[in-house]
Amino acid sequence: MSYSFTLTDIIPAPPAAVYDAWLNSRAHSEMTGSKASQSARIGAKVSAWGGYITGRNLELVPGRRIVQSWRTTKFTDDDPDSKIAVALHPVPGGTHLTLRHSKVPDGHAGYEQGGWQTHYFAPMKKYFAKQADRLARKYAGTKKPRPKLKAAGRTKVTTGRAKAANRAKAAMRAKAAGRKPARSLVARPRKTRRLARRR
What are phi and psi of 108, to 5 degrees? Predict the structure, then answer.
């Protein structure tokens, strides 16, 4: 017989940082304080805590989900592998980590009653708290800066269709204000533009 349980905690790091550290041998070792061998490949063999835990990657969703088969040296030959599913969700201040441990052999209640908290969650919090500044730089948002604006008319500096649309809007504003549109805003026939380029 076996059973399942779910644990949750808040880790002070972005989901991508937690995901990357979990699947990196060096980071996982530093994070838990014991030797680990991890991989970011589906099907790859993994181990933790100096070989006390062994398993394989079953499902990986970058920055969001890790599913691994796990067994410890305390499992008997008749015990099938257990399975852990780690879900990572961004929250203010870090990551809401939800761990679902299923197919745990009866009598192995220690994993739920302090094992995960002592050997993973607590050391993970310390590990990421020490690296807060470095992680903030590494996993900073990738939003592109706003496009620069021209001083006159505050027209966006763009290219292609967007540039043509901006010219048309500026011409319409000038016409509505009773002004003659600037020469550069007046659309020219394509043939004329092609000839102008050849010259």
Answer: -105, 50
Q: Helix, strand, or coil here: 30?
A: helix
The structure's pTM equals 0.67
What is the CATH number for 52?
3.30.530.20
Please tell me whether residue 100 adopts helix, strand or coil conformation: strand
Answer yes or no: do 168 and 123 share one domain: no
With CA atoms as reference, report the closest residue to 45 among 54, 33, 32: 54
Domain that holds residue 180: 160-198
Largest CA distance in the chain: 88
pLDDT digits (tens, 9 = 90+) for 152-198: 444 344 445 566 667 777 777 777 777 766 665 555 555 555 555 55
List of the chain residues with pLDDT < 70: 141-165, 180-199
